[in-house]
Each structure stands twice: as structure tokens, then as C-alpha cells.
Amino acid sequence: MASIKMPQLGESITEGTISKWLKKPGDPVKKYESLVEVITDKVNAEVPSPLNGVLKEITVQEGATVSVGTEIAIIDEVGGGREATPATASGAAREPQSVAAPAGQPAPPGETGSDQAPASGSEGRSRLSPAVRALLEEHKISDDELSRISGSGIGGRISKKDIEEFVVRRGRTAPDGGQRVAPDGDKQAATVAAAGDSLPLSPMRRAIAVNMAKSKQTIPHAWTVAEVDMTNVVRYRQQVKDTFKQREGVDLTYVPIVVKGVVEQLRATPILNASWGEDKVTLHREINIGVAVSVEDGLIVPVLHGADRMSIAGLARATDDLARRARAGKLTLQDVQGGTFTVNNPGTFGTILSYSIIAPGQAAILAMDAIVKRPVVVEGDAIAVRSMMNLCLSFDHRVLDGVSAARFLQGLRHWLEGFSEQVPLY
After folding, report:
1. Rounded Cα–Cα distance for residues 122 and 137 (Å)
2. Residue 168: pLDDT above 70?
3. Helix 254-268 and helix 312-327: axis angle, to 10°?
4. Residue 93 to residue 397: CA distance in whole angstroms
5. Tens digits of per-residue pLDDT, 79-123?
6. Between 13 and 294, where is the model more confident?
7. Alpha-carbon distance 40 to 185, whole Å?
8. Which is the CATH superfamily of the domain at 220-417?
9. pLDDT tens-digit profile of 373-417?
10. Where do the domains of the chain lie?
11. What does the DSSP 8-state code read for residue 143?
12. Half-sphere exposure of 326 toward its Cβ, with a 13 Å CA cutoff?
């Protein structure tokens, strides 16, 4: 017998939530075949079996959150010689997903998209995403009710929004017997209206809460802000963004430009590219920049590994790739591990001054706020309209003092304000 334990899915991760078992007791499993889905605050990951055998027992059920190192299953190695079923022999870890029927034609019986619910039955629930299944359980939605929910996603997939709106329709009936529907996009309002005064926690939200609480409780945060004139950067981006999109197939946003400036300043001020230890401060040789990406259930921070070896164009391509895969749930463990500094971009939502919480294991995080045109005093005491942005640096006061943080921001401000066509794009 071999004990399978909850793995550590990242340097700062201390626990994980069992999202879905991909095998059931008695099933043969092959080495490296996906065994279980685990959710943390950083990533949804499929954990592979470390050996050949038969799944003897599941000791932690779906939905449970346990610490790293906790036994979650037992595999009988003696059964490793048994011949796998066709599904496992091919290495498939999930039930086969059928190809959707052509438009206007019904799908064959029992065949649906991966998140589209069949008419009824527990099999349909097993094909829904973990977040959707959690809402079904939270609001006690029956199979019959599930069959009446129309999916708004690609291929008719049922999303959290579809479930939340159904709950509101079911729970809020107008005096004339009609149903009132919450406005589209107001997911939290819809859920609160259905659940009363409480908002149920998704596994990702719970994991984020634990990690952020740990950060605030163990890291003495300090922060400082610099006002940056982004006029030159804005002008340059306007000049090259169309040709860049045609050539590269991705947008040239402000994030890769700022990340490039961050890399230059981390070289000049390496104390910010560090980690605190109880008896030492570790300076990292690699510059791996985490870039915060908003997803349906919260925030994920995939990592640009070797950011110091990338051009602005390379950073743009890599950032776009990570963001797309983060929102599609396709990130790997490697994608979210090894970050040494984080850049957050709340300004995309119009914020003008943001203070971010430091990721455990890092010394600082930079928040980019919105670029806003406003009048400022320039050389010669003249007043001009400039594109201004605030940069807020949160830092671990155990690792560095305010002077180092101020030097970092000063250097980044000068780099951005002096931006010109002379800065290589490639």
C-alpha cells in the first residue's frame, strides 16, 4: 500500500482543496496519470499518480480543505500489474468529452460539452466545473431543475452566472406570479439576493483569504507612492500598437512596458528581488515577475520566468499567453511557481491609488493605477495636460527600508518618463 499525500503546489502554499476525484476506488491507475483535481489560491491543478496500481481508498472527499502532507488516498501497488481499462490505458484522466453536434442538430444521447449539463442524472453534474457544482449543492438544485437551465457559455456550457440567475428567478417571485431576474453581470448581487445576507465562499476565494491573512499577519507592510508622467509611453504606444498587433497577434499594453522598467530597477536595487528568512535575507538571481490576472473566482498570479531576459515584445507575448491560459484554467504548476516580485494592474478598472498585499515569499509588489490626463506644472512653470499614473509599492519592512523603496520608485519613474523610440521593442 502507498499513501498519497496532499502535495505542496507552490512555495507559499500550505493547504489545498480537493475539487474532484478523477478516479474512484477500485480503478486501475498508471504512473503519471491524473488522479485528482486540487484547488489553491494560485491554480487549479491535476495531481498525477506517483506509481502504477489500483486506487484502494479515498481518505479526503471532494470539497474538503486539508494541509500539505495530509493523506488523501491509498493506492495498492500490488494491483499495478493489472491490465488497465481502455480509458486508462490511453492515459485519459477524465471521462471522454464528446464533440458537440453541428448547429441545429441535437447531440446524440448522453453526449454533451464538458460543462453542459445533460437532461438529468449525476453524470451531468460530474461534467460541470467545480465552481458550478458547488453552487448546485449550496442552493440544493435538483437534477430536474438543472435540466431546465440554459447554458450561456460556449457550446451551451452552464456557468456560475447561469446558476446564480436561476436561483434569483426561483427565489424572488413577483406579486403577479412572474419572475424578476437580476441584471446581467451582477453576479455577487444575484448570489447575495438568493442566499440572504451571506455570500458562499468558493474554494479559490477561501484559499485566497487564508493566504492574504497569512501575509498581513506575518509581513510588516509599508508602502510608498510615486506619481509618473506617462506621456512619452502613451505617445509611443499609440504609434506602434497597430503594427505590433498585426505582427505579433497580441496587444501591446502598458503592462509589459512597466514590467521592463521594473526589471531594470530590480537589477539596480536587488534587495527588492528577495525573500525573508528567519535568520537571513535571500537575494534571488533570477528575476521572475508575477503578473496578477483577474479570473471568475478571484485572482491568479502566473509568473514571467526569466523576465530579465525578455524584450518588451517578448514580455507582451508571454503576458498575453499567461492571461489567456489563466482565464481558461490551463495554467500549469510551473506557471505559478517561483515568482520573486509581483506587478498588479488595478488601473485597468479605473483605480487611481491602490495598495496591494505582498505575496508570501516575496519582498514587494507594485500596483499600476489608471493613466489619467490632467493639468500639471512642467518646466518653466508652464501648465500642460499630461498623462499621469500613480505607482504604489508595498514592501516588506523586514527586508528593506523606505530609502530602498523610494530609490526603486524614483528609478522606475525616471525610466518611464524618459521613454522614447530609443528603447528597443525587440
Report:
1. 12
2. yes
3. 120
4. 45
5. 444 443 333 333 333 333 333 333 333 333 333 333 333 334 444
6. 294
7. 25
8. Chloramphenicol acetyltransferase-like domain (3.30.559.10)
9. 999 998 888 999 999 999 999 999 999 999 999 999 999 999 999
10. 2-88, 122-204, 220-417
11. H
12. 27
**Looking at this protein, which amino acid is placed at residue 342?**
T
Q: Bridge partners of 65? A: 17
Provide the annotated active-site residues. Answer: 397, 401
Parallel, antiparallel or unpaired: strands 382-396 and 221-229: antiparallel
State the alpha helices, DSSP H only, in 156-268.
Answer: 160-171, 187-195, 203-218, 231-248, 254-268
Confidence of residue 175 (pLDDT cuts 50, 70, 90): very low
Grid coordinates representing 108?
446524440
HSE-CB for 374 with a 13 A CA cutoff: 11
Set of cell numbers at residue 401: 527600508
Q: HEC states along 375-391?
A: EEEEHHHEEEEEEEEEE
Rounded mean pLDDT, 317-322: 96
Termini Cα distance of the chain: 54
**Residue range 2-88 in CATH 1.10.1660.10:** no
Query: Could you tell me the three cell numbers for 62?
Result: 471532494
